[in-house]
Write a structure and sequence with these properties.
The structure is a homodimer of 225-residue chains.
Chain A lengths: L2 H27 L2 E6 L6 H12 L5 E7 L4 H6 L5 E6 L8 H7 L10 E5 L16 E7 L6 H4 L1 H5 L3 E5 L4 H4 L3 H11 L5 E3 L8 H9 L13
Parallel strand pairs in A: 1-4, 1-5, 2-3, 2-4, 5-6, 6-7
Chain lengths: 225, 225
């Protein structure tokens, strides 16, 4: 193992410990934490905007939004959630457990039902960093191409749930949904998939249903209807 | 500076040296090297397919294609170029000068006019790694959103040329071209921009023209007509 690879392993080990602590804290107070990962522009913020707006009347919801620069997403989302905080990572291509811990240090977590973590737009780095989430959802937009699960297997492998986004554009871009599903299941055979459009609302009921039935323990997902 | 940050600096310094050697080699034999960077699914392979097909009758062209896994892109491109080689990076989120040097170790570079390097789909990591290119072109697809230059400034800053892709979908996705151009120029004031569609061919003449007028020295770009 090279020196840089060794240090990387130590960083990941330290992150896993911090993430386990966070996960205990989250489940202790009964807050469900959803980590949204995808490439840039797959529609994380749009999905989140829709989701927060739907949950807001009945639940207490908050969001942490990761980006290299700017607080545009936090501004977009702050209308729909109790608490929204931007984490700017500079040149770092993912969020990690320590960044999350620091961001929520003075939050009253017990007041929350849901915490959404919008990760940095990247199909590589966020795959290796546990942030203590209850559920990791990977987004794949129809405009990105059906081959992305095969080309970025780790992030699909580490996810609990896949959301195909912008399905209203499927025809315009010649999206082959059977091939996309086949490719997702080739890297993660049992990964549940919903097809959605935050613009038209198609499929969003399945996504909302999954969120509401989410248990507080990671991996403990009721099967998708 | 933390220990991991220090090691990262050393890695980058070593990469810069190797990239400078590569660049000398490339310009010595008169091959123009174009490094294509973008997020996953922005259309690097489609742009490249079109480009190779157009150049192939009059020039000797080759391509190196980076991905975490699979050689699908190399297969797609091998019909249109003299030589196509896939570089699979495992979990590494970018190509670097050493990978390029290894891949072309036994090539007869002097026989080539153009070498295209399709980087790993990622808006973060490839920004820091010089691969000895003559020109770095960053792609932004209309489906990704106009805000990406502001959110990933380094990659737009380090590019010599910006290609807006999938412009045929602009209307369907409500793409605001003025805002996109404004955001690109906010992070890189003089960056030349072309708007293209590899599907319909719109704007591809400007891209091809730029390539053909490319000098062998980085940064030495004739102004775009």
């Amino acid at each position: 193992m090279s020196r840089i690879e060794q240090i990387r392993q130590n960083v990941l080990k330290k992150n896993d410990l911090l993430a386990a602590e966070l996960r205990n804290r989250f489940s202790g107070v009964g807050v469900r934490v959803i980590n949204l990962v995808s490439s840039p522009g797959a529609g994380k913020t749009s999905l989140l905007e829709y989701t927060l707006r739907e949950l807001q009347p009945r639940f207490s919801v908050a969001a942490l939004v990761g980006d290299l620069a700017t607080d545009r997403d936090a501004q977009r989302l702050s209308r729909a959630a109790t608490k929204v905080q931007q984490i700017t990572t500079g040149t770092v291509c993912h969020l990690d457990a320590e960044m999350i811990g620091t961001a929520i240090a003075d939050w009253q977590l017990e007041l929350l039902d849901f915490l959404f973590i919008e990760n940095v737009g990247n199909l590589v780095c966020p795959a290796s960093y546990d942030v203590g989430e209850t559920m990791r959802a990977v987004l794949l937009s129809v405009t990105e191409g059906e081959d992305k699960p095969l080309k970025y297997p780790t992030i699909f492998n580490s996810a609990d749930f896949a959301v195909i986004t912008k399905i209203d554009l499927a025809e315009a871009v010649g999206f082959n949904r059977d091939e996309a599903r086949k490719n997702i299941h080739e890297v993660s055979p049992d990964l549940p998939i919903v097809e959605t459009s935050a613009r038209t609302g198609i499929g969003m009921d399945l996504w909302m249903d999954r969120l509401e039935r989410l248990s507080h323990t990671r991996g403990d997902l009721a099967p998708l209807i």
